[in-house]
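Known limitations

Files may contain more than one protein. Parsers should not assume a single record per file. Below, a two-record file is shown to illustrate correct handling: read the sequence, read the token line, then continue until end of file.
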Amino acid sequence: MSGHRGDEHRLDYEVVRAYWEDAAHEAESASYMAHEQGLPPGCVEHRFALERAVVDRWFAGLGPTASVLDLGCGAGAWTELFAQRYGRVVGVDASVGMLAAARRRLAGQGNVELVRGDALTVALDGEFQGVLLGGLLMYLDRADAVALLVRLGQLAPRGRIILRESGVRAGVEVQTGTYQVVYRSLQEYEALAAEAALRVVAVERNRGYAHMEIAVALVNLARRWPPLARRDATAVGGPLWRLLRATAPVTLDLVPRAIEAFRLDWPHLTNHFLLLEARD
């Protein structure tokens, strides 16, 4: 994998799709990027619980008859949660394998429609009161990211749109190779929203992602040691996550706050929730 600064590079969408089809055999963990470091289900559950607190708060005004769109639904964790609360839920993903995992998870849910397609062009009927975009803009070039946000403003003209996107602390960084992605700063995401005529209502750091990213960085560091490099990733990821959880007041609470206070670029990636609404 290689990377460079700036957003002039165009992503190869076929490479992006191929990556996610390959990752779909571990759909549950891959949806949360926990698969390559062998992090256990408990890590994913921990992150999801912290993220859910934010989404619950921001969707609190949606009633039980609301229509909610889960765009880039992956294995369907959020789709399942929304199905328990709202009248109509539509989950969209471009990956055959990811959508198959979502269908298995949501079998028997009569108020859910799962659709395979490109987020920019897939046919979607009706108006939505809530939209969750869980890490999709980062796989789009700038023009397409703006176009998607414009479309969301049309699909949810009176609704609430939640973005959850990974990025860097400043500027833009493009990763090429077999995993292609654009990491944008929070300021860049806010600029995309403004260009799409969406108003940023609230921004919140994703604590669940911050905790998991500490584990990711430490697993990557540990596996540079030759004896561990030869081991399966789960042999490192599982014990390390249990250690972090056992020492959470320091490792998962105090350490991230200190990192932010001293403006350290570690772990390299960050993640934020942004709440958007269409401008009046």
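...continuing to the second record:
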Amino acid sequence: MLTGTIIKGIGGFYYVQTTEGLIECRARGRFRKDGAKPMIGDMVQILQTAEDVTKGSVEEILPRKNSFIRPPVANIDQMIITMATSNPEPNLLLVDRLTVEAEAAGVKPIICVNKLDLDANKAEQIKAIYEKAGYPVLLVSAREETGIAELEAVLKDKITAFAGNSGVGKSSLLNRLSEAFGLETGDVSEKTQRGRHTTRHTELFELPFGGYVFDTPGFSSYETEGLMPEELAGLFPEIRQAEGGCRFAGCAHVAEPGCVVKDALQAGKIAPERYENYCILYAEAKNNKMW
């Protein structure tokens, strides 16, 4: 049997990259019977057909280091959470939902601010917010090819998911990384300030300088399931770092007096935008609307 990585799945077929090339596979029926399903990014063992060695079947899914339900992908090293300085306007609440999602899965979040050419001042403001949280921040412009070398260095030899709202330029950035991608890009609506979804299925692309990237339509609307409200603080690194000396055990860091997290906020150690979004997500978690 061959071992390979599933790089694409369409219409019940899984395309597995192996040392012998790309093999088109069907999954064994027992996976469905066992309630399991191959995911893009899975390491799998496959059996080639005797009649045609370019076709085969997925026989075994190897252990995953992480996985996601929506979209169904596995074995990610890092998540490039992408936003634009404008057109569309930055949605920091969505960005913070995605950082929480990445943290919960043990995936490294990296913030990427695209369209630097449209508003460099706003890009620097966003950079300050997320560097205070301890996240690496890249300032790039797909149009002017600014910061592409720095982005390549971060992506090299890693399996990376690009995530973010439609219209922020994820596909344009991928096209700058390799002309072979040829991904369709979309304009942003003047009225809604939303981009047109140009990625219709999840695919894992090999980078010419080493590593793989996902381009996927699903991460822009992810909702974590099953996370308890009291777990949320641990998924904000700057809040996690400040915790430990609150007056009340089990402090939610929202309305309680004697809260060291709110002291850190007042001292400028936590960005107010991040704290405000923490409170929004905590309220949603408490009401069981999001988590």
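Parsers that stop after the first record will miss the second one. For reference, the second record is described as follows. The chain has three domains: 2-61, 78-221, 229-286.
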